[in-house]
Amino acid sequence: MLDKLQLEFKPRKQTSVSPSSPIEVITGKSSPTHGITTNGKSDDHFKSPIHRLDAVAQVAVLIGVICSTVIGISKCGGTFIMNALSLLIYLAIQAVNGTSGIVHEHILKQVPSTIDGALAKLNLDTKTIPYAVCSCHCTYPPTYTEGSTIPTYPQRCTHYPRPGVQCGESLLDSHPNGESSPKKIFLYHDFNDYVAGLISHGDIKTLMDKSCDELITSLPSGNPHFVKSAFDAQFLHEFTGPQPGRLFVNRGTEGRYAFALHVDFFNAKGMRVRGASTLSGIISMACLNLPLDIQYKPENMYLAGIIPGPKQPSLENLNHYIRPLMRDLAASWERGVRYSKTANHPDGHLTRSAVVLAVCDLPAVRHLAALAGVGSHFFCSACSCYHKTNYGRVDFMHWMPRDKEKMCRYAEQWRDASTSAERERLFKEHGVCYSELWRLPYWDPTQQLVIDSMHCILEGLVQYHIRNVLGLTTEDTPALPASQPAFDYTFTRLDPGTDALLSMSTKEITQVSAIHELLVTQVPFPDNNFIEMQMEKLCDSLLHKNVCPLKFVCKSLGRIPMKSTRLYKSDYAKALVQWVSML
Amino acid sequence: MGKYVVIISSLFVKPCRQRREMPLSAVSGEHPSYGKKDVLKQIHDAIRETTMPSWFGLVPRNFGDISAGTIKADEWHSLITVYIPIALISLWGGPSSKATLKSILDHTMDLVSAVYVSCARTMTLEHATAYRSYIASYVGSLRRIHPTSNVRPNHHASFYVYNYLVLFGPVHSWWTFPFERLIGILQHLPTNHKFGELNLVRN
Asked: How far apart are CA A537 and CA A519, in angstroms?
């Protein structure tokens, strides 16, 4: 699927790419993502190989490519078509001449026998790196022996999914003919190859540089009042580049590209009403330098890879799939990537790219940044609002943004923890796991981890308001009617965080609000017997709570039981029941 | 005698008053009830009779039915910015409508305004501030006007859209519509359910 998509997405010439960092010592050659020699990109790749073919062979290639990319014929079908075309050409030559000369044999040789060969003639193949995937989701880059085109992988997984426990699963399936291939593959589309494709177009390259230059010239006049794109807005006006004290967009002679990163999980077989059964993931990016009207054209977007299903990786395991991309991005930020030839720079050009924002729906945001789920008490990724009881807070002036440095420290502590129990404790305490995004030196989840307005507002608030609040659908499920409180009473509320002050644990603080809810529960039938029964039930429920919260609620209602001896839980519970029943 | 009356009344009046203020069960009829079918019919009329420019996203004419299918994000956008305000204002906006219905309408209009402002193609600081005040007013009075509804993490997250409007400008450069479209393209590609085979064979 991935291959097919990229074929459709990249109907353009590729540049000759030999990305090497400007610092000669650490050229890309040592890094695994650049070390691939199989694609054999040579310097004359700026010209398309199709030009060197005979007209007859060119038409044959064109037919094959259109069958594959436009009509969607499978690989087997494509091979059949290519071979049938060869046969047809051969027979046509025979019919006209009787025999075939050297020229004719040369033409026949030029017709590729597989559909992949045909695509390569049009430079439609992209540089992808097949990573072997273990059942623990760890990914392994291929290695190539000198002169060979067959990727080799380690035999067994050497990853430690939990501290101290090595996975050790076999990565490869061995075939009867002695060959072995990975059990599961994650294809990573090389990021630098994508940028090379983008900047090999003169007009696109000009537009990308123009947005940086316009920002720099407009800087002295301050932030524009009417903001029309991300390049007019505050973040890129203040985003410092790799050199301290210098803005990222202040590009000098380099190319500076800003990207939006997106990760989502979807059902590869289409949406079903009953919900997703097989989930694949997608990692994609869009270049914010481009004007809005071409920014999201499929051919300009970058598809880093598809996370193979059928199940989505658990929280921290997504890291294995974004690691190749994060490595490329970190290298691009720190060392820069030099392209040997672009449309506007025949002698090569140095570029740096950065992810300025990551946008996903709420669950995927937590997945990407490896934060505790949206249903947990750490429900906000941007501020330190803690505990579910705070969902409805509106005093936004008082919300404290989360501290980026602290989050980074917690993440690293989690990564370096020596036992699973320690990891669990850290996660419970701070709600942070290690995310590969921390590889990027500029990563700040409080600002760059964007809340997607489409999911949050349109599919979240609006849908909830119309469906559940106003109930404007005939199909709404006859869910149990939410029990509404019998009356409104302003209880003394507790702020989570004051637990140390009251010598109550976090759990007990939660119980305070639970007790409040119990006290205002409705009695369904206001009949005397029923009320009595309900009060007994209430007393029972209250007895399940701890003493401290019961005592606190009694105190706040001014209902401390009168008793000279020691006060027990039951005394407080009775006092509260009395407050409810009153008579 | 009078003394006893005072004592007795103080014994009983206080609890009685409290019981009146804090009943054991909610008084029925206090919560707003409206004919949902009438509202739906009004929305259907609005969808049918409004002439919209061709670039504006279409919505299913039988909105609310099971056969209308899953309502997509863009359809929610069309509904909340055009059809639902038209329908609700024409139903509940008149001078003779009940106060409770008017408060529901005002509350809904807060959300409509927030969506309208947040999806604008040009952003200013005033726009963003207006967005946040609408959301604050919407979330703040949600439990008061609709006591059975729950507040969700989305309600909290929606406050932060303000920050990103200021940091990154109009939503169009940082929402997931285009990325979801990419997923749509992927879902419609024919596959053989084998991953990455094409590439391996070539190598």
From this structure: 11
